[in-house]
Amino acid sequence: MIARIWHGKTAASQLEAYSELLHRLAVPDYQKTEGFRGLTFLRRVEGDEAHFNLITYWESLEVIRNFAGFDLEKAKYYPEDKDFLLEFEEKVTHYEVFASV
Question: What is the mean pLDDT of residues 62-82?
Answer without folding.
Answer: 93
